[in-house]
Write a structure and sequence with these properties.
globular; alpha+beta; binds zinc ion; 7 helices; two-stranded parallel ribbon; 15 strands; 13-stranded mixed beta sheet
Length: 316
Amino acid sequence: MSQFILIIILLLPIIVELKEHWSYENITIWSHDNRYCGGNLQSPIDLRFNKSHIDRRLKAMYLQKQNSHDSLQLINNGHTAQLNLKNHFVLKNVAPASEDYRVEQIHFHWGHANDDVNGSEHLLEGRSYPLEMHMVTYSSWFSNIHEAMSNTRALAVVGVFFELSFESNPFLQPIINALGRIRDNGKHVVINENFNLKALIGEKRMRRYYRYDGSLTTPPCYESVIWSVLQEPLQLSSEQLQAFQRLHGEKSVLMKNTYRTIQSIGSRKLFRSFTSENIHDDEIKKQISSSTSYGQYLSVNMKFLFVLMNLLMLIA
Ligand SMILES: [Zn+2]
């Protein structure tokens, strides 16, 4: 018996390591070791305007700066580039009369070199973006993110898409400049340049977002996240995007396609804080109106068919 216990104790670090080991190359087996990854409230999802409901209680969210002099640390954790922002901001107006959510970190998801299309986790009208930023926050009812992580609606994550532009985004540049110094797994660096998260996202953008209940998009996939995905993307240049694509993950392998495939929305409801008038992307506007008119066309046809069937039955 004592020998058996000894073997278990000796094997424990290996068992724990195996459980914590996951990669984007084996997404389909995440649920084998992490039961939540196979749940019904998983993220990301495809965000469709015509399948969402307006919720007028969803107010403009905003970031409130805290008095922190902690340095900003950017780390390569083997899966992404993550900027730790502990004690720097709180996120307000997550829900009506809700508590504050403390910003813990931001991190990114992207595709790979020579792919300017894929990279984002969420999709907008079936369309992906080359980069998606996640701002991870936790409810101030909890003393830290680890305590909050597995509790219902204890996390609030804001997703922001990036689209390619000819000009580089100056607000993102302090992170881009530091990426070259964290090329390898486990590296970290302090950002000394002035990084302004509020200016990067922009106040107006925080008014228009999709909202749904979902999960962490990496193991252990806890279903504890209030998701807000901003409708309007930010911009970055292809040189800036390439800086992410050059990072190395575990075993010095290039970090690529760091996004989870979309999950079924199931019986969940998707809400939004905006109307179609607030959409400025003409392509998306066109797509939404064409699928609306198709829906209307279909419902008119169904009504006609119903009347016709009734008439036929009367005649018979
Ligand atoms: Zn993420």
